[in-house]
Each structure stands twice: as structure tokens, then as C-alpha cells.
């Protein structure tokens, strides 16, 4: 029983003292879980236990250190307060034992186990931990290179097929990526080899795929559940219509659709695939209930919503059966050998990599866990017996982030006696956001559900929050009570999970309501002050922070127990990723807002490091065009863009280094020649030095002879830049200590890390005092801040994993796409489809939990920042919630679309009474969410933000001060600039790159230049004719200036018409003629070219199904959109043998439809006849592939349809 004078709640007290069985504490954000854990430890010690008989596992080393500090503080206090000499002596003993206590990360505990019991697995006890990611990467590459060569030498036919399926005609990097990712994924399993060996089981379908374990145990239950949901919703809709005479047609339609669903359900139940596919082929659910007016309006909306929900469930079912039965079985049969070989190769790599590590005397973190498990799991293991007898309790912090392998280790050190248990697990599954580290929240969920019954263990839920104001908690509850359940989020956000305010001292105030700041990117017509939505959102955030400071917004100081004006240090900006940090740095610097960016792994992206790495690349090989251009443009050489262009004109076809050499000999600008001569002499000197000296010595020489180190020190954020450059020398030293040598290998290592998105943290420097902090949501976990701005809420979930040719899941194994090499068609196998659905659901669930973590970081006020094209678009996205009749939103609404976080929040607010003042449509809601939460929404278009910025600047400049005040102000400003910590400055890479290695002919409209993949040698002369330096950038377009109407000019004119034509209504001959006449009048087309544009061809296109699709959704159609992306040179030029060089490719895409998936189309004005169709398709395939890649990388969504539209031939061809 909790004493009355204890500050703990009843549930916290229970969590401190309950014992006798395994205990799971589900501790919501801010509920004091660390305090409870420390108090439980102290009470164990008070009862006579020793600290070294407890195993306390934390998620990070920092958490372990904090835990020890808290325990030490509590012990010292107990020593001072204890009157009993025996107890005091016991506490002193615990203080002595504390440094050696088992309070650590699981990896540290594993190290202890291995060092004590290494002999049980015949392991050499002398080893070094392979903690450097760069060394690990080099070692893996060395092993894989040898293994791959061995397979090639063996003439293994299935291996060649595996390479073809996952690689490309240019490289086998796709196979390398597959093996590395599969190996890493398998390492999270308790037995990686066993997991890999089971992978082919899902492809054994000799008796039909319906007899596979994957189908029977996973797909069939999932499909049956969806069909049952559809049947229930159809039945509800039918019941609503039965007594309404005016709804008889609707009743008939719904009954027919339900009958179809019932037949499919019967076929699924009976495993009758013939009947199933027959029903699927004839499935017709296209017709929708129409909304009625008058007295039936409300009823028809409900019926329509039920029908839509039912159809969504059926749609989910159809995704599992994308092809006819025979095709699905054939795909499994063909894929079986590939999966067997994939498993074999990955196991071979694992064995070879393990042998290499043992030979070098190193272990990595995966080894620590696997060797520990091997030691503990051995039959009658003395190690397991030792630890089970030693530890009176095993305490695990952040249990929601444990994986299956770690769970297995813990199971061997805890008490496994029946009806007993000594595991104390604390965590919050709502904060499980480490899927990328292969954390498995289902372990927590399984215990949460089973521990409800005390014979399995006990669970305690801590829901009181002692961190945040009631306004923050009410808003968080409002959002998640409608969003999170077992389907999306993986746990029910019920009454037990809801946050309860536990800190009573916050003064009452209306100033702490959550604010949504929404940037309307579309803005007014022709107003584009911000090129990206992120730039607008960040500018809006910076201005809001400035407003808070100038208006002296007050917050409650918990230490002083009084209100005080907010400071910069009270504010944190949370971002989903680090991708926008550079824009944040630039924007805040311009406005004079001090900034500190934490947990930023962007070392290789900083300008100074990229410059030196570019210099190292050309020392290794001066024929690297892009690094050479970067160095020439940098302060090291200091050439201007015009000078770079002038050099290229000296030699238009060769490498840029050759052009540089030619200009040194034949150039006309003596000043430029002098610069080049100095640089080339330096370069030759450095190249000679690099062959005779160590890499760190070379880097130091570069610093000394270029004075680049001193130059960077004088720049904004110079201290950090200087530290970065010094750290590069240290990293070069570590590289050479790891038995690797050579400049080329060092450069290759860095490139590999960048390819795998493995960056390093910048070296720590003195932090900025009183600065706004910027960190990722992941980095903020466990922390709290008075004011929180959550940025980039319009961002979509990361869909890259769903665009690869393979996908993994810990329980379901591996799914692959089968590539038909003859047809170049990609097919998703049934395991791929099943795993993709599961992983997609998990991705949305994790994104939801990340939102929960972000909202619960705020102590006093939340600002949610996002963007839409317009307020109308926001309404369109949010109002789908209005027809929902239950508190929790339909899964179909939560599992689709982009703008995921902002859509989720917007939909939950739509049914709150406060929304009526913002959208009058909110009055028509079917369900009203009762909540004490209140919020405001502010909308800012481009002009609003621009004006706000200008008004702020005027206000800053309008104050008149005395000379002394001005001097003081100047000194303060200078000091702020000198002290400003600037940890993130991404290099601007594109300017110099565009001016040197542009392959423009590949991406000009192929009506003018029709090429697929260029032959490097045979196209050298062709390239110079399109070099960007040969014509002025603002020259009159050729199709306006020229008088002859060649085919290319007519094609370009036709594209112009199609680009500018309004899509809000179907064009007619008359409207087209009027529109083209208007283009002529405005000087966009010449009269001669206007006459050549074929109006009948354009009308033909808009009468096709594709044309009609564009007209039906004009707001989703994007036309003549530019793009730019880096590509390996070898992907463009088939004879180019340097796989390191890259080109910056840019072009303009005719059009695409942007939805959850992307439809891409491209107009052609070639003449099409029966004999040349295949030739034309082949010609354009490479171009379309690059367009698809650009769109996929830009939007993180798949391009599922691609069309070539031949206007003259009046034919539309679908490309794969």
C-alpha cells in the first residue's frame, strides 16, 4: 500500500514493489519510467540484494550512464539518512560495487559474457571490436568481391540468372545490394542460417500456391478478414436501404455486390482457386451509390460510405491475386531456384565474412549477440546456469525496441522456473520507432496482451504525464484516439493508453493551445517566392520564432516556479529527416536566429569536406570531370563559371582535364592561362607526393599549400569547419591503421558509404548557448522541450523499400520480383505481394508512432508546420473523415495518400467542434469528437510569408539609435556571428557540375534528338553541337526564330500547345483553333508553325481513355516538369569504363499524373508504321526509364504506368 506522503502514484508504486512474476510496465510518454526503474533498484538494495546481482539493460550507453548516476545519488542520500549502521554499511558496499554493476547496453553485457565464457564456443579471447563502420564496409567489400569472382569462375548458371534478375546489363551492383541487405536482415534472427534456409519454402508450389504455408498461415487469414469486413459493411448498407422505396435500385446494386463478395469468400474458404479466379475475373464493383438530396441525403451519405469501405476491403483482397492462377504458380516455380541460390550465396558470404573477421581478430556488434546466444543456448550451458543463479532480477529499459535475437539472449539469463519470473520490462510500444534497426515491437505487444492474465505475467500501465501541460496532452489524445489501433499503430489507443495530466503547477492560460501553421505552396497565380514547400515552411517557422521573441511570449519555468519570457534555448525544431537542415541553417542565419543542430550525421555532405574529397579524387585520377570542376570552382583555384565555360570551348569533346591542358597551351586569355598553369603544376606535385607518402601526410600538405584550413576558419561556422577538416586527417590515419592502404581505396570507401547512406557525425565543438535546437524525431526520443515546432508534416512515408526488386520481413521471409529477361517485364510474386502489404502497414504504423513521439516532446506548446497547394486541397484531404461514424477512423483513410502526418492530424481535427469556425463543411460531420482540446489553424500563402519577412526587416531597420548604441549593437552582432555554430552546410554541387559534363542530347526532347543509351566514342562529335556553352541562355527559341518548318520544330510547337492547353474541359476543333491563334498573337508560335500543328491528332488523343483520364483530374496532371539527378557515367555511355564518374542529368518530362502511384506519358510526333514500331519503342525505352527513376526519387512513389503517345500514328504504347 502506498504511503500517503509518497509522491508516487498508485500505479507507479505498484511498478516499484510488485514481484514474484514477470512484470511489464507500459509507461506512456512523460510518466516517469526512469524514476520508477531507479526507485525499484533502490528498494531491491534496501531489501538486502546486492547491485551486482541485478542485470539492468538500457538502450544506449548514455542511458546506462544516467542510470548509474541516479542510483549513486540515491545511495548517497540513503547513506546520509540511514540510522541503522548495518543498512548504512550495506549501502556503502553497493556504492563500491556500482562501477562494476551490470548496468549497460545489451552489447556491453554480451562482451562480458564472451570474455568470461569464450572457451565454450572455442573462440579466441583476444579480439578487437569492429565499431568503425568504414572498416566494416571495406572488409565486407573485400570478402564479397572474392566470393563473387569465385561464383563467376564456377559457371554457375543459376547464379548468372540471379545476377540478371537483380542486377542490370551494366553492372551487378543490384545483386551486391541484395546480398548485403539480406545478410544484415538475417543477422537480427536468433539463427540467421536457419532463417535463410527457410526462405525457399514460400516458393514450393508444386501442388498450387494455395498449399504453401505462406498462403495458409498468412494470406488466407488476411484475405478472409478483409472479405468479412466487406460483408459486414455491405450488410449494414443493405439494411439501411431495405425500408426506403426510393433506394430500391441502390438495394439491388448492393445486394449484387455482396453476392459477388460471398462467392469469392466461399472460394477462399474451400481453397478453390479455379472458382476464385473466375470470380475475380468477372468482379464488377465499379458502380457507386449516388448521393441523394432532400430527406434521404444524410442516409445516402452513410450508405455510400459503407459501400466505399467495403469496396476498399475487396480491393485489398485483389492485390494478393494480380495474375491468373497459372501465372502465379509459374512465377513461384521460376522464382524457386533464384531464392534457393539467393539463400545459398548469402550464407556463403556470411561464412566467408565470419572467417575473415576471425582471421583478423575482430568481431562486430552482430557477432557479440550471436556468440553470446551460442554460449548461453548450448545444452546444459554452465554460462546460462551461472547467470540464472546470479541475477535476482533482469530489468530491461525501452523493451519495445528489443529484437528477436536480443529476446532470446535475455530468455537464457532470466529465471525460467514455472510460475515464477524475474523479468522487469519497461517501455512504451507507442514510441517504438526503430524499425531501421530491426526492432520488433510485436514482442512488447504479445506480452501486453497476454500479461493481462496474471498467470502469464503482470502488466501495469502508467498513463499520467508529469512533463506536459494539459493543452499538449489533450491535443495528443484528440489525435491518437482517432488514429491508433491494432490495425495501424499496432496497439489500441484506449482509455488506458490516453495521457493524463500529472503536473499540477502550470498556471492556467489560453496561450498554449496547439497551433497549426500551414503554408499554401500554390499561392496566388504567378507568385513563387519559395521554390519548394520546405523553404516556405522553414521561413514561416523562423518568422514565428522571431515573433515569439519580439512579443516576449511567456512560459513557465519549473525550476524558478514562475513565468518568464521565452528564450531561443527553450525552442526545438523536430524534423522527420535531416534532408532540410541546410535550408534551416541558411534561413535562420539570414534572420539572425542562433541555431544548434544535433544528431546530424552529415560529415561528408559539408562543403569543406566535399571540396577536399574532390581534390583527392583528381589527385588519384584527374580525368574525373565533376570533382575537377568542383575544385576549379572552389576557393582553392577560384575560377568563375564563365572561365569554366571558356575552357570547355577549347575542347568540346574530350575529358575536362584534356580541355584544361589544351587551354594551358592554346588559350587566349593570358590571365586564365596563368591560373591554370599554377594549378596544374600543383596537381602534378601532389600526385607525385601521393605515390610516396601516407594519406594523412598528403592531406596535411594540401591544407598547408592551399591555405584552405585557414580559409575555412574565417568563414561563418569556421570552428566547426576547421574541426571537420582536422577530423578528415584523423579518419585517414584510422583508415591506414586498419591495414588498408592507398588513396583510391580511401576514396572508394567514402563513395561506398555515401551510396549506402552511411554518413558520419561531425566532430563535436562547443555548443551554442541559448540557441534554437534542430534534431530529428529519432534524436529527440527521451527528451523534452518547452516549445516544439514539428516541421515537414506534408512529407510522405519513405517508400524506397517498396521500389526494390526484393523485400524482407522477419516472420514471412523474402519476397522477390521475377524479371522476364526476354520481355523485360517485372512480376511481383505472391510472397512479394504478401510481404509488401505487411511491410506497408508496418511503415504507416511506425510513422504514426513517430508522430506520437514528436507531439509528446512538448512541455508547454506545440506548433505543427506543414503545407498544401491550397486551403481547398487541405479541405479535400480532410473532409473524408466527416462521414465516419465511429471515433476511430477507417483503416482505409489511415493507410493511403501522401502528406501523411498532416492528413492524419487534419482528419482528426475535422470532427472537432472548433473546426466549424475554419471550415463550414465541418458542420456536416456524422460523428462529433468530444474533447477538451482546442487548437488554431493559420494559413499563409507565398505572398503572406514574403510580406511578413519584409515587414520584419523594416521593423528591424526602422529603429534609430545613438552612436554608442549602434556601436554596441554592431559589436553584439559581430560577436554573434563569430560565435555562431553552423554544423550543417550542404555543398551546392550542381552549378559547377552542369557547366562541365552535361549530356544534354540524351534528355532533349527526342523529337529533336532521339537517342537511348549513347556510345561514348561514336557520339563525341555529336555532343559538341549541343554543348550549352555554344549559345546564349536567353536566345530566342529556334522554333520561333526559324522560318523553315522541319519535323523537330513542328514537334516542339505541338508540345507547346499540349503543355499550355487548359485541361478543365475537353477541347474541340473550334476551341483548339482559337487557342493556337492566341499563342500566335502572344508570340509563342509563328504563323507558319501554327499551321503545321495537327488539330485532328490532338483531338484524337483527348478522345482516348488516357486523354479522358487527364481531363478527369486536371489538378493532378503535371506538364513540362524539369528534373535533375546524378547518374553514373556508365549508365549513359556503354563504352565508358570508369564506374566512378557521374553526370548531372537534367531534362523536361512531358507529363505525369501524381497520385499514390504515378502515371507517366510522353508525346512523340514521329511517323509510325508497322515496320518501325519496335525500333521506336526500343529507342525511347532508356529515356522513359530515366524519367521513371527521376519521378520515383523525387516523390518516393512508384511509377506504375508509362505511355508513349504517337500522335501522327494515333497509337498509344504502354512501356514496362
TrEMBL record:
Cofactor(s) the protein requires to work: Mg(2+)
Pfam families recorded: PDDEXK_1, UvrD-helicase, UvrD_C
Iron-sulfur found in the keyword field: no
Domain UvrD-like helicase ATP-binding span(s) in chain numbering: 6-469
InterPro entries in alphabetical order: AddA (IPR014152), DNA_helicase_UvrD-like_C (IPR014017), DNA_helicase_UvrD/REP (IPR000212), P-loop_NTPase (IPR027417), PDDEXK-like_dom_sf (IPR011604), PDDEXK_AddAB-type (IPR038726), Restrct_endonuc-II-like (IPR011335), UvrD-like_ATP-bd (IPR014016)
Top-level taxon of the source organism: Bacteria
Binding site for ATP: 27-34
Domain UvrD-like helicase C-terminal: 496-782
GO molecular function: 3'-5' DNA helicase activity; 3'-5' exonuclease activity; ATP binding; ATP hydrolysis activity; double-stranded DNA binding
Catalytic function, reaction form: ATP + H2O = ADP + phosphate + H(+); Couples ATP hydrolysis with the unwinding of duplex DNA by translocating in the 3'-5' direction
Keywords: ATP-binding, DNA damage, DNA repair, DNA-binding, Exonuclease, Helicase, Hydrolase, Isomerase, Nuclease, Nucleotide-binding
One GO term describing the cellular component: DNA helicase complex
Ranges annotated as spanning the membrane: none
GO annotation terms (biological process): double-strand break repair via homologous recombination
Keyword DNA repair among UniProt keywords: yes
Quaternary assembly: Heterodimer of AddA and AddB/RexB.
Function: The heterodimer acts as both an ATP-dependent DNA helicase and an ATP-dependent, dual-direction single-stranded exonuclease. Recognizes the chi site generating a DNA molecule suitable for the initiation of homologous recombination. The AddA nuclease domain is required for chi fragment generation; this subunit has the helicase and 3' -> 5' nuclease activities.
HAMAP family referenced in this protein's UniProt entry, alphabetically: AddA (MF_01451)
Homology family: Belongs to the helicase family. AddA subfamily.
Protein name from the UniProt record: ATP-dependent helicase/nuclease subunit A
Organism of provenance: Enterococcus canintestini
